[in-house]
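Take a look at my tokenised protein here and describe the backbone shape.
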Amino acid sequence: MKILVTGAAGFIGFHVIKALLQTSSLDKNYCIVGIDNLNDYYDVDLKKERLRILGEIALPDTFTFIKLDLADRDTMSELFSTHQFDTVVNLGAQAGVRYSIENPNAYIDSNVVGFVNILEGCRHYDIKHLIYASSSSVYGMNIKQPFTTADCVDFPISLYAATKKSNELMAHSYSHLYNIPTTGLRFFTVYGPYGRPDMAYFSFTKKILAGAPINVFNNGVMQRDFTYIDDIVKGIICIIDKAPSPQHSTVTTAAAPYKIYNIGNNQPVTLRRFITAIEDACGKKAQENLLPMQAGDVPITYADIDELVEDIGFKPETSIEEGIKQFVDWYKAYYLGSV
């Protein structure tokens, strides 16, 4: 199976390719092309380190990396024409809720224009299944908990969330018009080794180990459905071979091979428990600056994963304490040279 993975140097893309390469060496024949534009939203050296690891573990002819921008229409068309993919796993996007307030054009270029280029490639080159990253951010400040994929998500509170919702809408139109099987995955606060430095768990760990104070927004009164990276990867790999069939909903006569799933731990964690897990893994107490909620943030995320369990037979299992320990051990080894 020939697979395109976008965002190959990113956090989730790296881990997905790594797992596919390891699976390929055992009992499956995967040939993977990874693309990434290596932008400087965060430390490019970390992205290069991820690519170095992938290059080391890949068997001959199983992995090719191409530096490429999703928003480059002509080059993306050439990519699809040259490689004749079976499956696309689109994990490349401009991430970050708060950065979307500062730099909206980056989100339109990558998350909207780039996604249209992906859809056009799938349309013209007979892609068997498109899996793409959405986000729990689409739920905004919805009142009902837990969040289900049947909930109304028409009120995004950040441009990042709006671009992810637009991905789902565009995917449905292409699924309906061109019979392209598409599966959108609403990720819930993904964390783990080789993670994004802009995420709270990363900066908290760095500051706690250095004895510096951490900023705790909304005075610490928040909950998140944290999902460990290994659980996210297992879910994606399970879904690759499960392309959706045309389905009717209860609100439209349009049928499309289209599906949306939540991938979360199904267990919201309070910010206090989250910080305690980091303190325990670091062996140090945090100094806290309590601050009000930031623009674009939400008080709680909570994933209903019943459909994921029923259709795919998969459920995330990693506790926040276990996952955070894995991350902190990696952080100490990578940045401090010790565990």
In short: The mean pLDDT is 93. The radius of gyration is 19 Å.
